[in-house]
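Q: My labmate handed me this sequence with no annotations at all. I'd like to see what the chain might look like in three dimensions before we decide whether it's worth expressing. Could you predict it?
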Amino acid sequence: MLQRVNMPSNTSPPVLSDVAGASIPTWGDGRRARIGLLGGSFNPGHLWHRAIARRALKVLGLDQVWLMVSPGNPLKTGQAMAGFEARMATARALADGRKIVATDIEARLGSRYTVDTVSLLQQRFPHVRFVWLMGADGLASLSRWKRWRVLVHDLPIAVFPRPGQNAPALKGAVGHALARWRVPTCRAAVLALLSPPAWAFLAGAQNSISATAIRKRGGFPVGVCSQAGQDRQNTGEQP
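A: Here is what I predict for the chain of 239 residues:
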C-alpha cells in the first residue's frame, strides 16, 4: 500500500551556482526540499534533459532538479564517451543555477552506480525527498541496472515518455513487476512524499532528441551554445 510521508514545512533551497557542481556539498547539509535527480552521461546534454527537468519541477512540485553527470556509465562502456568536463559543460548550458542545477557530485562521491549514489545522497541529505527522473527507455532497461529492485524501494521514480519506448517500458518485465506500485498521474504532485516503491508515468509531449543522434550528425563536441540552438530549432522550444 502506498503511504504518504509527512514532510516538515521547508524553506526554499539556497541558490546554487551552475558554474561548478561543487556548490552542492559532497558531505551534505540539512536542507529540506523535494529534489529530482536526473542522472545520465550527458554525452552530450540536450534539450530533452531541460524539458524533463522543467516538467518535473511543475508536475511533481519539486524545489529543484539536479542534472547529475555520471563519471562513467557501466552500461555504456562500448560507446565513444567525451571527457567528463566536456559533458559537464553541456549540462551547465541547460541549467539555470537555481531550479535546475548541473552537478558533478556523483564523481565526487566516487560512485558509478545509481543505487549507490542514491544511498549516499540520502545519508548526506537526510531531510531531502529525492525523486529519480528517467525516460521510458531507462525503465525498459532497468533490469540491467545494479540492484534495481533495491533502487525502486529507495526512492519514488517518475518516468517520462520517449518515442518508441513507452510500450516496451510499461508492458515489459519491469513494468509488470512494478505495476502494483504505479501511481496515477493525477497524484503525481505528491509522488515525492510517498513511501517507495512508488512510481508514475507522466504521459505528455514526446521529444525525439537523443544524444546518439546528436553525435551521429557530428554535433558533439562542438560549442555548447550552438548545439543548444540547433536542438531548439528542431523542437521549437524557446530558451
